[in-house]
Design goal:
A: two-stranded antiparallel sheet; 6 strands; 50% helix; B: Rossmann fold; 10-stranded mixed sheet; two-stranded antiparallel ribbon; 13 strands
């Protein structure tokens, strides 16, 4: 009897377990896609439109319940931990790609000094913040409020030998400081202007100004006149009109520091150009010419040495009138040489 | 931050912080939203904007005055608003005879309109009309999209992306299980989009995972899609660009076992064991005579012996 009851209990337990699982499982035709980082589920199943039309509210509610159950099942399956009496699951990274709000930040363009320092290999050296001040006998900051060796706090300045005694040395110092600050600010603005594409206004035409000067108007007129299909060739001139000055191209110099490779290639280009004015030596052509000259010289020599023996015969032939046989023979022997010889004679 | 902003130097630390917060970042902050009312707005539109505001709080700004503008014709004023309040998402509500109860959902990239989708509200039940308890403010919702249109149709796909962007809330690494309280369910069927908002009730199921029951909390919308303005491919691609610094590179030759011990694999050259320094014992020391003998012998002969 006892054995049967145990079996019954086990069967009951199994049934209970199945019942529990049934309560949290949902059957779907197509699997849902999850993006647990965003706590997102996408149900690609198409809805039954007829059912939906009959009971839209209940249908939507049931669908939402099923989908939520599936999503929650996934979320509960993630690795969890306990943080201050709350069970927390770790979410994975998002898989849905979303557009950014603002563009990717660009690195700041190097300033003119930074470029120069890089070119020269100058590296930043860290200085200590505190310096020993001999006057106050204590360590003080190198910069800022209550700095060491503060030259603005000096009550006496030694007059330099070359200086004008009437000149206020304190005012001079303050002025110099102001100048340095202004220069730094100007350089900062210059660096920004250099790094940005802003401020590149076309320098021609009538740019908007409050009160255009005579020269600006003249320049604008000149530009307008040239802005025709024939580049202003057939434009009439006013009586006694002068050509505006300063419209030609200005010389532009290369920057003192910068691209060394470009500079090198430019110099090489120039050398090549200078070299191109000199006549070039074509080796094959020269060799051919030399060979031909040698050949002709050798031939001439040979003819000279053979002349007494054969020349008499030939001469006799010629002298003897125009015999058909002799003429033929002469030609066959090499009319060219004979011809040349005749010319030379 | 454009070059013009860089010219004007902030005078205080606070102003500097403010500008830094607005400047483009590698890891971005959560997107803020502006809700703008058009020149004419019906009661439905006003209430729906207010309800969207309560869903989106605190990353949201509600403009309460009328703004005579038409985003599909001229986007400049919207772009100005977004720049002003540093918001990259917007909803614009308007009402007229041709397009009654109109809501335009949109997002910006670099303060220019990226996507805009116009949804007409056919039926709206506000948050107040549901007499039940609500979930706390700024709860990160569970988002669910149902219907095959969200997969098939390009406009619906973009709308899905837009709505995820709009409602997903803050990016978090971990979430409290008991805090899963709010569900936003979007269903696309019969050319309509049904947006329903439910509160989650967790019932005991006997296992670790609870059985879920839902209670409608509101607001609920029945939308129809009207005009759309989707970003061009290159602009969209540009907006999807990820900075190099944000992509984490996998570290090579480092592994962990199940106990969490870190192992590193090291590659090194083969050791020459002949030169290995062993214990120095007097008996093993080479005597000068031995050394001399070894010097005379050829190495081959030595091997043989």
């Amino acid at each position: 009897m006892a054995a049967i009851s145990v079996e019954q209990v086990l069967a009951q337990a199994e049934k209970d377990e199945a019942e529990k699982l049934r309560r949290i499982t949902v059957q779907k035709e197509l699997e849902l896609q999850y993006d647990l980082g965003n706590m997102l589920a996408i149900d690609p199943n198409a809805l039954n439109e007829r059912d939906f039309r009959q009971q839209s509210r209940e249908h939507l509610h049931a669908l939402a319940r099923d989908n939520t159950q599936l999503l929650v099942n996934q979320l509960f399956g993630l690795p969890c931990e306990r943080v201050q009496e709350a069970v927390v699951v770790k979410l994975p990274d998002c898989t849905t790609r979303l557009p950014r709000e603002k563009p990717v930040p660009k690195p700041r363009a190097p300033t003119r000094w930074e470029e120069f320092a890089k070119l020269k290999g100058i590296q930043k050296k860290k200085k200590t913040n505190l310096v020993w001040d001999e006057v106050h006998k204590q360590w003080r900051r190198r910069w800022g409020y209550q700095r060491a060796k503060d030259n603005t706090k000096e009550w006496l300045i030694e007059l330099p030998v070359t200086a004008d005694p009437a000149e206020d040395q304190f005012a001079k110092r303050i002025h110099a400081k102001k100048e340095r600050v202004a220069k730094n600010e100007l350089n900062r603005l210059r660096n920004i202007a250099r790094s940005s594409k802003l401020g590149k206004v076309p320098g021609v035409g009538l740019t908007p100004t409050v009160q255009p000067t005579k020269s600006e108007l003249g320049l604008a007129m000149q530009v307008a006149r040239r802005s025709t299909a024939s580049v202003g060739r057939f434009q009439d001139k006013l009586p006694r009109e002068k050509e505006p000055r300063g419209t030609g191209k200005k010389r532009k110099f290369q920057p003192l520091i910068g691209d060394f490779s470009a500079e090198k290639s430019k110099q090489l280009e120039m050398l090549k150009l200078m070299d191109s004015k000199k006549p070039k030596l074509d080796v094959t052509r020269a060799v051919n010419r030399q060979m031909r000259e040698e050949d002709s010289e050798a031939a001439a020599k040979r003819r000279k040495s053979q002349k007494p023996g054969r020349g008499g015969k030939q001469g006799g032939n010629r002298k003897g009138g125009k015999g058909a046989k002799g003429g033929k023979g002469g030609k066959g022997r090499g009319g060219k040489f004979s011809g040349a010889k005749r010319k030379s004679k | 931050m454009s070059a013009l902003d860089a010219v004007v130097k902030p005078k205080t630390k606070r102003a500097k912080r403010f500008l830094e917060h607005r400047a483009p970042k590698v890891n971005e902050n959560e997107k803020n939203t502006i809700l703008v009312k058009g020149g004419n707005a019906s009661d439905t539109v006003t209430k729906s904007l207010r309800d969207i505001y309560s869903l989106k709080k605190p990353h949201c700004v509600l403009y309460k005055k009328k703004n005579m503008t038409r985003p599909f014709e001229d986007q400049t004023s919207l772009e100005f608003f977004s720049k002003k309040s540093d918001c990259s998402m917007f909803v614009f509500g308007s009402h007229n005879k041709k397009r009654p109860n109109n809501l335009i959902f949109g997002r910006m990239f670099d303060f220019h309109v990226l996507d805009m989708i116009e949804l007409g509200v056919e039926k709206f039940v506000p948050l107040k009309d549901f007499k039940c308890s609500k979930c706390p403010e700024a709860t990160k919702p569970l988002l669910i999209f149902a219907g095959d249109s969200f997969e098939v149709n390009e406009e619906y796909r973009r709308l899905k992306n837009l709505l995820i962007d709009f409602f997903r809330g803050p990016l978090v690494t971990a979430v409290r299980l008991a805090g899963l309280e709010h569900v936003l369910h979007f269903t696309a069927v019969e050319g309509k989009i049904f947006m329903r908002s439910y509160r989650v009730l967790m019932k005991k199921s006997g296992c670790r995972t609870p059985r879920i029951e839902l209670e409608e909390m509101g607001p609920s919308f029945d939308f129809v899609m009207r005009r759309t303005h989707l970003a061009s491919d290159d602009l969209y691609k540009q907006s999807m660009k990820r900075p190099k610094a944000a992509v984490i590179k996998k570290k090579k030759n480092i592994s962990q076992d199940t106990f969490g011990t870190t192992y590193g694999r090291i590659h090194m050259q083969k050791q020459d064991l002949g030169k290995l320094q062993t214990r120095k014992v007097k008996a093993l020391k080479k005597r000068p005579a031995d050394k001399a003998g070894a010097g005379q012998e050829s190495p081959k002969k030595k091997k043989l012996v």
